[in-house]
């Protein structure tokens, strides 16, 4: 479980790209002051904030560990993962590939 360094959302990592693998348009839409480097891992998250659930794509430099121990309420968490144990979700082996 992780949280964003600058923005008020948290989530569960479900995939990773070793380097940036999104569109130039998406990257250029990020404000200059928080725009990440492309030469680092980017994580796909089942994310949530105070008002919604969504999928986020976040650079490693903009993620921090979420040590709250609180479950992520995103509806897809139950589909992709098993139980929350010790601050981490178990991988649901029936969904692993």
Describe, in plain words, how this protein is organized in 3D.
- The chain has one domain.
- The two termini are 20 Å apart.
- Helices cover 9% and strands 38% of the residues.
- The strands form 2 sheets. Strands 4-3-2-1-5 form a 5-stranded antiparallel sheet, with no helix packed on it.
- It has 97 residues and is mostly beta strands.
- β1 and β2 form a beta hairpin.
- It has 2 helices and 7 strands, in the order ββαβββαββ.
Q: What's the pLDDT, averaged over the residues?
A: 92
> What is the string of SSEs from the N terminus onward?
EEHEEEHEE
**Rg calculated over all Cα atoms:** 14 Å
- For the record, give the distance between the C-alpha atoms at the N and C termini, rounded to a whole number: 20 Å
Main sheet strand line-up:
4-3-2-1-5
Shape, principal axes of CA atoms: globular
Largest sheet geometry? 5 strands, antiparallel
Helix content: under 10%
Number of separate domains: 1
Weakly predicted, low-confidence segments: none
Oligomer classification? single chain
**What's the helix count?**
2
Give the number of DSSP strands.
7
The structure class reads mainly beta
Strand content: 35-45%
């Amino acid at each position: 479980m992780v949280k964003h360094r600058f923005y008020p959302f948290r989530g569960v990592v479900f995939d990773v790209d070793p380097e940036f693998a999104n569109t130039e348009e998406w990257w250029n839409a990020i404000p200059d002051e928080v725009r990440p480097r492309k030469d680092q891992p980017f994580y796909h998250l089942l994310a949530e904030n105070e008002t919604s659930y969504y999928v986020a794509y976040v650079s490693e430099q903009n993620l921090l560990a979420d040590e709250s121990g609180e479950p992520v309420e995103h509806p897809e968490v139950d589909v992709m993962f098993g139980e929350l144990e010790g601050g981490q979700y178990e991988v649901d082996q029936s969904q692993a590939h």
